[in-house]
């Protein structure tokens, strides 16, 4: 790894040097800065619109229109830009334009009450957009595109990102995102490491209104022994259902290398801005077969210096149509307030309060599932404050503080059946007399978690010019602390939810989350974005930064540093001519472990010493020795990621463009569960009087007449997983066909993901047999654990707009051209690596010796599915038809899998079956109540 | 064979066929009956449906403008839009309905409670174009009573799947259709597209079931004027529609007996004990047709005539594997109609509308396991309606009266000589009237009453002669069709002409059908009454 890092560092230096040389050759030809000017008018009447905010996206250039609707932006950066015009009561207009160096560009804007009535407004993602202040590859999704995407949460909006599959809307299941990854086959029940469901833990950062979200203190899981799983995003990424789509104003998805301002990630960052400021009251109603949604939002001015905004969203989704009528219900509220201080308007304080509640109840229905029920109730409160002050020169100080508190309640009850077993509820090491339990019983478990996330940041930003370049420098200090104060994993000890008891592995014990230590980090970062400009639209942009994350000991910022991750990042953009951009980026990232991984649950082992079971309960005797093993790993550290990409962008005129890039993202030291071989000792005793009919249990005779070794595999979190994803993303936006008022876009993403885990593998049933049979001296182990997944996903999108009647038709065909998953494992009888002894030692066996007679007991074939599973090509058509209504309303029809496509799926080379993607359709109505009063 | 005379109560199916104008004002009801638009690409879907004498939906016709005649409005040719849409209109409606009663076919739901939302509008687009569009969304909760797995168990197709469990169902349906036309000088061209979808599922069931269907459709049309004044216009159009339906039934914690009917032949019966897995059904249908129409105006008279020839192919599979053997149903359809109207004006406030239509369907069904035919069907329908409408302007009173007649012939069964066949001939007569009054300036109220009489004759297999498993499906339906019945319908409506050109309407209707005294009592014959009420709020923006 060290060699790799040194090589990477030398590459960074080389690139920096190249850029400096390039910059030096360009500075001599700097032309005067260009100007963008124009007039904003009302589309229907042509009347000038005063007070509209005109800005260049991703820059600090902004102006208000005057009484004649005119505006002027001076000194704007040349090259491709997006002019944004917003005004209360009108649809925000985004107009891509190319600014030539030294030119004065006239751009008039016609504002309509609905985006559908704006000529040529983009109602899909901007394929070559730029996140604000970022040079890395990004997909920008503006309010107009959000409005025309059928989505109940942020997850639905992200379907506009290349490589993200389209799903039907709803909130019935946990929604997570992992950029630029595809599901892998999983490493199987006998192998450690992440699988399909764990990819979200690879780390895509979500930043909501300038403050990161975190899932690191979410402990709502029963662990590897749990038999009654509860739905949860624990161990993965943020559950995106907490962010309703209707509240979103803008989403920037940084797929490439984010700047050093963003951390705790490895797979990119998603920057989310919710709607705030003055917003005309708006009511949203949406309904399809499974989901109903009501949303309301409004924002108003409070005097001349303050605005307040409120949004409420209530969504309900049917969970299992056909069998039951249970629902998942989300309520989400956001309140925001902004106060502008001082006459200059350069000091602002933004306050946000977000409340959400996700309820999923599956009550018992006697005729369907006697004795079984479950519920999940997650609530959250997040308060954030951002104070920003800007000086005359554009320098800015920003202080951010946020507290995110959640209440997570999971419950599951189910009837279980087991044979009579010796049982103990002892909570510490030692031998004790237990009792027998068994028969049918109702197992139930309650998991109460209260995760907290406190975040603070001080950032200084300063624009300046040096070495002929425009600089935008950011320097900041971040602190964060995460902990869980919940009552934790609770159940009646007598009726444990985990009942697979083999006389060695212990029964579950309750666990209190509040006793776990917190996790604290401190971060410093420095980032500079430099731009050298030359004639003819040529320019060179370089963004370079360094981020240092420090993970502290003991959950306080004042304790020592447990792990430190220095993360240099660099992005380079060369524009050899107007309309062509060549881009490259490389950066190191780090992803924090979770609180649960830092403090894993202690593992209880209840070894049966005496199992004397008689028909007379009074004569029974159970003696068990409890051993509590600490599964924590003091060496556990942050996972390291390395992102790199190179790409080309070309303008094709009339908003057309082509973007092609290749990326290679690696994660080293991802966290999985390592199997540590060890052993315990079982004492066997003789009984004093084992005659039946005495009416009392026998007694053990000390000392034990024999002791035997019981081998164990202790599951311990470890940085043992490497993950690599690489691929190609391409976006082609054809110029608008004006005669047809139609745009065609193509997004293509070919992504391949590989996971590899170190550590040993065993055959579970064989190892259990080995544990319980003292005569067996050894059992084989393997150590190859790999899986891959690949996907070629193409999205064809057509947008037809008829502004004269406020009609827009969006048709998206998602073409899954190729998809496969495969697990690699050694399965033949000579593939074992060695053996585990009864004392827990690993003894390797050389390949040359494995066929010798002395290892005959180790030669066995493993029943692991290594067949490549390929999904046959298939496609789905989704459509939205939106039409403006009188009084500024809008009615939309949407359909997912409009043609009720029955897919073709192949599993292996011979079996062929059909898959049935769901079909969903419904209506969405947006009303502006104020319009009825005008 | 037993010969008997029959009476069917519902004459509204005839109304839906012959009176698109009334259909356009009606609530959605059963979308398979296509009662509510005459111009879209779905307009002829109803001719595939076996006579369903329970379509008796009514709303006030006096509170709405009469729908004009023409190649677009009557024959569904979108190329005629620029010539027939000269103003702008939009309607938003929301309604509630309920239907209950024992007088029903065996696979019909025991009761239906529904909610409907709809929006429709049309407007010119520039000087030489016009568009029209409609979206309609309906949700229904169906009480137990209909054990059919497929959405429409009473089509003319002989392949119908049903089982023995009776559970409540929720059904959601949406229909979206739009049309646009453009005048290119002497020739006008146009296209209409539509999409209809259905999602349904049982509510709480040990044998859960899911069913969904999707039906996209499109029409391309062309229209040219004849003569120098263009008062006569000739149009041609091509129509295409496809429909897929997927249904699954899961024997989770309960068992069921699934039956696939093969016409009147012995059906395929599959017992599904608890935990036995899923039963699958996939129906793929494709329909295409070409049609021609001619329309004209002279003075206050306008008229339109149209005809269409179409073909339908349907494949039904019960196994999920690709290319599994399919039961096939093929049908040819022919339809023709004519409509004439004399408009009212201030000097002569009496308007007259006359309509007539004839349709014929011939179909063959072949079982998957054999190439030979197991079933054929021939359905013919003829219907006519006359409407008088008296609406003086200005005036405080208005009136409308209609008289309708419909007759249909159903001949179907096993094509082999000597095997089971049915031949039913039904006749429907309906007449009634409606009056409106304007008590104050902006308020208008209307009330109406209609009486329907149904009678039928013919021959059909004795229910006992049918295979036991299909008696509820086929025998029950024939017994239902054999019952003489009487229908009553009452409509109430009020319109408030708010601000500007907008108006708000509150509409309601109640209707019922019941067997008439003197009907011969037969095995599986229903008795009693079935009634329906519907209320609707509608905003009309002009």
Rg of chain A, nearest Å = 31 Å
Helix content of chain B: under 10%
User: Distance between termini of chain A?
Assistant: 67 Å
Characterize the main sheet of chain B. 18 strands, antiparallel, barrel
Oligomer: heterodimer
Pair with the biggest interface: A-B, 40 and 44 residues
Bin the strand percentage of chain B. over 45%
Largest sheet of chain A, if any?
22 strands, antiparallel, barrel
Chain-averaged pLDDT of chain A: 85
From the structure above, extract its key features.
heterodimer, A: 934 residues, mainly beta, 22-stranded antiparallel barrel, 5 helices, 45 strands, 52% strand, B: 542 residues, 22 strands, 5% helix, disordered N terminus
Written account of the structure:
The complex is a heterodimer of chains A (934) and B (542). Chain A is 5% helix and 52% strand. Chain A contains five helices and 45 strands. In chain A, the strands form six sheets. Chain A has a 22-stranded antiparallel barrel. In chain A, strands 9-12-13-10-11 form a five-stranded mixed beta sheet. In chain A, strands 1, 4, 7 and 8 form a four-stranded mixed beta sheet that branches. In chain A, strand 16 (306-318) and strand 17 form a beta hairpin. Chain B is 5% helix and 59% strand. Chain B is built from four helices and 22 strands. The radius of gyration of chain B is 23 Å and the shape is globular. The relative contact order of chain B is 0.18. The chains are: A mainly beta (934), B mainly beta (542). At the A-B interface, strand 41, strand 42, strand 44 and strand 45 of A face strand 3, strand 4, strand 6, strand 7 and strand 8 of B.
């Amino acid at each position: 790894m060290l060699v790799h890092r040194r090589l990477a560092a030398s590459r960074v230096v080389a690139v920096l040097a190249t850029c400096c040389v390039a910059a030096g050759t360009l500075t001599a030809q700097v032309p005067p800065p260009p100007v963008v000017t124009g007039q904003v008018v009302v589309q229907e009447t042509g009347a000038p619109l005063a007070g509209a905010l005109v800005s260049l996206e991703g820059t600090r250039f902004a102006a208000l229109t005057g009484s004649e609707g005119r505006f002027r932006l001076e000194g704007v950066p040349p090259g491709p830009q997006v002019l944004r015009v917003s005004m209360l009561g009108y649809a925000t207009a985004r107009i891509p334009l190319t600014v030539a160096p030294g030119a004065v560009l006239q751009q008039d804007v016609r504002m309509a009450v609905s985006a559908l009535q704006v000529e040529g407004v983009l109602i899909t993602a901007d394929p070559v957009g730029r996140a604000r202040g970022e040079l890395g590859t990004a997909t920008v999704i503006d309010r107009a595109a959000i409005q025309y995407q059928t989505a109940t949460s942020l997850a639905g909006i992200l379907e506009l990102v290349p490589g993200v599959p389209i799903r039907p809307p709803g909130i019935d299941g946990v929604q997570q995102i992992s950029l630029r990854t595809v599901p892998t086959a999983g490493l199987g029940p006998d192998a450690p490491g992440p699988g399909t469901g764990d990819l979200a833990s690879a780390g895509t950062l979500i930043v909501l209104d300038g403050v990161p979200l975190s899932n690191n203190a979410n402990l709502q899981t029963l662990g590897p022994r749990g038999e009654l799983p509860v739905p949860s995003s624990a161990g993965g990424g943020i559950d995106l259902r907490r962010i309703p789509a209707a509240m979103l104003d803008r989403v920037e998805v940084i797929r490439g290398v984010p700047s050093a301002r963003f951390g705790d990630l490895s797979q990119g960052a998603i920057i989310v801005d919710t709607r705030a400021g003055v917003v005309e009251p708006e009511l949203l109603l949406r309904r399809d077969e499974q989901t109903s949604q009501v949303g309301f939002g409004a924002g108003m001015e409070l005097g001349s210096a303050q605005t307040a905004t409120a949004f409420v969203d209530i969504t309900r989704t049917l969970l299992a149509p056909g069998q039951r009528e249970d629902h998942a219900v989300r309520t989400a509220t956001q309140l925001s307030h902004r106060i502008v201080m001082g006459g200059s308007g350069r000091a602002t304080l933004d306050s946000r309060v977000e409340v959400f509640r996700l309820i999923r109840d599956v009550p018992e229905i006697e005729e369907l599932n006697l004795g079984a029920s479950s519920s999940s109730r997650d609530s959250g409160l997040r308060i954030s404050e951002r104070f920003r002050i800007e000086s005359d020169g554009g320098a800015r100080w920003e202080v951010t503080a946020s507290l995110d508190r959640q209440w997570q309640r999971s419950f599951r009850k189910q009837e279980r059946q087991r044979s009579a077993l010796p049982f103990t509820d002892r909570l510490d090491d030692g031998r004790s007399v237990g009792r027998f339990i068994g028969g049918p019983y109702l197992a139930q478990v309650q998991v109460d978690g209260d995760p907290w996330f406190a975040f603070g940041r001080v950032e200084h930003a300063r624009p300046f010019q040096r070495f002929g370049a425009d600089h935008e420098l950011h320097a900041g200090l971040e602190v964060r602390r995460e902990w869980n104060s919940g009552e934790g994993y609770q159940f009646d000890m007598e009726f444990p939810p985990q009942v697979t008891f083999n006389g060695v592995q212990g029964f579950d014990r309750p666990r209190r989350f509040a006793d776990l230590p917190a996790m604290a980090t401190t971060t410093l970062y420095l980032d500079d974005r430099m731009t050298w400009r030359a004639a003819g639209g040529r320019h060179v942009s370089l963004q370079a930064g360094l981020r240092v994350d420090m993970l502290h000991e003991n959950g306080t910022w004042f304790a020592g540093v447990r792990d430190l991750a220095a993360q240099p990042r660099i992005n380079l953009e060369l524009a050899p001519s107007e309309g062509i951009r060549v881009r490259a980026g490389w950066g190191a990232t780090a992803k924090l472990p979770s609180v649960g991984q830092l403090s894993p649950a202690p593992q209880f082992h209840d070894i049966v010493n005496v199992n004397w079971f008689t028909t007379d309960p009074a004569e029974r005797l159970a003696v068990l020795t409890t051993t509590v093993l600490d599964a924590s790993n003091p060496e556990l550290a942050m996972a390291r990621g390395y992102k790199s990409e190179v790409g080309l962008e070309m303008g094709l005129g009339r908003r057309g463009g082509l973007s092609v890039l290749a990326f290679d993202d690696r994660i080293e030291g991802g966290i999985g569960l390592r199997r540590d071989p060890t052993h315990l000792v079982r004492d066997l005793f003789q009984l004093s009087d084992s005659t039946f009919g005495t009416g009392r249990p026998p007694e053990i005779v000390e000392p034990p007449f024999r002791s035997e070794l019981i081998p164990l595999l202790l599951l311990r979190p470890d940085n043992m997983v490497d993950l690599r994803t690489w691929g190609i993303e391409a976006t082609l936006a054809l110029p608008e066909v004006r005669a047809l008022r139609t745009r065609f876009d193509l997004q293509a993403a070919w992504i391949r993901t590989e996971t590899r885990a170190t550590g040993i593998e065993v055959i579970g049933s064989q190892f259990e047999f080995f544990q319980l049979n003292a005569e067996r001296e050894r059992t084989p182990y393997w150590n190859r654990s790999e899986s891959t997944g690949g996907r070629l996903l193409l999205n064809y999108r057509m947008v037809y707009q008829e502004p004269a009647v406020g009609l827009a038709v969006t048709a998206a065909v998602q073409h899954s051209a190729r998809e496969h998953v495969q697990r690699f494992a050694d399965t033949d009888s000579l593939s074992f690596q060695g053996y585990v002894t009864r004392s827990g030692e690993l003894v390797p066996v050389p390949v040359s010796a494995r066929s010798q007679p002395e290892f005959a007991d180790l030669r066995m074939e493993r029943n692991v599915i290594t067949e490549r599973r390929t999904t046959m090509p298939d496609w789905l058509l989704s459509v939205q038809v939106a039409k403006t209504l009188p009084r500024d309303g809008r009615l939309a029809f949407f359909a997912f899998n409009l043609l009720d496509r029955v897919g073709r799926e192949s599993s292996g080379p011979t079996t062929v079956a059909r898959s049935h993607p769901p079909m969903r359709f419904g209506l969405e109505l947006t009303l502006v109540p104020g319009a009825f009063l005008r | 064979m037993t010969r008997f005379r029959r009476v069917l109560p519902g004459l509204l199916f005839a109304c839906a066929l012959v009176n698109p104008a009334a259909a356009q004002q009606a609530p959605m009801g059963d979308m398979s009956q296509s009662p509510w638009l005459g111009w879209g690409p779905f307009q002829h879907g109803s001719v595939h449906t076996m006579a369903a004498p329970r379509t008796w939906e009514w709303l006030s016709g006096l509170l709405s403008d009469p729908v004009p005649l023409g190649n677009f409005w009557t024959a569904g040719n979108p190329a005629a839009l620029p010539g027939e849409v000269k103003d702008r209109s939009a309607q938003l409606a929301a309604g509630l309905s309920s239907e209950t009663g024992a007088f029903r076919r065996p696979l019909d739901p025991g009761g239906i409670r529904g909610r409907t939302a709809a929006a429709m509008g049309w407007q010119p687009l520039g000087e030489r174009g016009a568009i029209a569009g409609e979206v309609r969304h309906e949700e229904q909760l169906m009480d137990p009573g209909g054990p059919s797995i497929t959405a429409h168990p009473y089509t003319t197709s002989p392949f119908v799947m049903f089982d023995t469990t009776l559970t409540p169902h929720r059904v959601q349906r949406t229909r979206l259709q739009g049309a646009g036309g453009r005048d290119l000088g002497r020739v006008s061209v146009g296209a209409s597209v539509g999409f209809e979808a259905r999602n349904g599922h049982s509510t709480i069931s040990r044998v859960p079931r899911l069913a969904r269907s999707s039906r996209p459709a499109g029409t391309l049309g062309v229209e040219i004027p004849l003569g120098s004044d263009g008062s006569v216009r000739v149009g041609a159009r091509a129509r295409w529609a496809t429909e897929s339906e997927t249904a699954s039934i899961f024997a989770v914690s309960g068992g069921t007996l699934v039956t696939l009917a093969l016409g009147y032949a012995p059906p395929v019966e599959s017992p599904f004990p608890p935990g036995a897995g899923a039963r699958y059904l996939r129906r793929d249908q494709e329909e295409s047709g070409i049609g021609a129409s001619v329309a004209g105006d002279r003075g206050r008279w306008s008229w339109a005539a149209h005809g269409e020839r179409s073909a339908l192919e349907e494949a039904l599979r019960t196994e999920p594997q690709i290319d599994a053997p399919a039961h096939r149903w093929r049908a040819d359809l022919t339809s023709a109609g004519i409509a004439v109207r004399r408009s009212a004006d201030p000097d002569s406030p009496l308007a007259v509308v006359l309509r007539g239509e004839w349709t014929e369907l011939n179909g063959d069904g072949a079982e998957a396991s054999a190439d030979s035919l197991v079933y054929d069907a021939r359905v013919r329908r003829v219907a006519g309606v006359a409407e008088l409408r008296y609406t003086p302007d200005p005036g405080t009173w208005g009136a409308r009266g209609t008289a309708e007649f419909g007759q249909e012939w159903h001949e179907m069964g096993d094509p082999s000589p000597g095997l089971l066949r049915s031949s039913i001939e039904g006749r429907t007569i309906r007449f009634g009237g409606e009056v409106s009054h304007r008590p104050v300036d902006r308020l208008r109220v209307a009330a109406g009453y209609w009486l329907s009489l149904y009678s039928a004759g013919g021959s059909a297999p004795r229910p006992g002669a049918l295979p036991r498993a299909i008696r509820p499906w086929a025998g029950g339906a024939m017994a239902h069709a054999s019952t003489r019945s009487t229908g009553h319908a009452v409509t109430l409506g009020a319109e408030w002409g708010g601000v500007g050109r907008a108006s708000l309407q509150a509409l309601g209707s109640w209707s019922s059908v019941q067997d008439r005294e003197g009907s011969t009592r037969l095995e599986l014959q229903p008795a009693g009454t079935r009634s329906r009420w519907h209320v609707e709020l509608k905003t009309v923006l002009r």
